[in-house]
Specification:
It is built from four helices and seven strands. The chain has helices at about 30-40, 45-70, 125-150, 160-170; strands at about 25-30, 70-75, 80, 90-95, 100-110, 115, 120-125. It is elongated, with a radius of gyration of 19 Å. The termini are far apart.
């Protein structure tokens, strides 16, 4: 997909070979308090935090699909057409490079979408993506908070560290 080829048949799926950006890395990061609870919590707590994080990532990507899924076509890509969804590969990480706890997911979105009007693969109009990234981050954060509250009864995980420390035996 990153090379503009069909993942099964290897046939070219996009006409323009002039795409300078093959994909976008959308990163969704849990707050440090959530990352610490994820790293140090019981297996049950870690599983619930993982599920909450994954649901929040899905909500943020869904928001972007509904609001920023626009293809470019025509001379210099000046014409905008609607598309039928992103393709994304999500990679969840437990730590950052320094090896400290940092729950986050990279969602790699190829710079191509299929237009709804003719079904052809076209370059993603990144202007819409960039315009909605900040809001998608807020969607992720609010959904994560809601999921943690429903799953663990924790509205602000940072305020509940004594309870968490007791639960994990520290």
């Amino acid at each position: 997909m990153l090379a503009g080829r069909h993942p099964v048949t290897d046939a070219p799926i996009i006409e323009s070979a002039n795409r300078t950006i093959p994909a976008f890395d959308l990163t969704f990061r849990a707050p440090k308090s959530v990352s610490l609870a994820f790293a140090l919590g019981s297996p049950e707590m870690t599983a619930e935090i993982t599920a909450a994080h994954d649901a929040a990532v899905d909500a943020a990507l869904g928001y972007l699909e509904r609001n920023a899924d626009v293809a470019r076509r025509g001379h210099n890509g000046t014409e905008q057409v609607s598309a039928d969804g992103f393709i994304a590969a999500a990679f969840r990480h437990r730590t950052r490079r320094a090896a400290d706890p940092h729950l986050h997911t990279h969602a790699l979105v190829p710079n191509m979408v299929r237009s709804t009007d003719d079904g052809r693969w076209r370059t993603l109009d990144a202007r819409h993506l960039y315009a909605h990234l900040l809001t998608a981050g807020y969607v992720y954060e609010s959904h994560l908070l809601d999921e943690l509250t429903r799953r663990l009864g924790i509205a602000d995980i940072g305020k509940h560290f004594p309870r968490i420390w007791n639960e994990i035996g520290l």
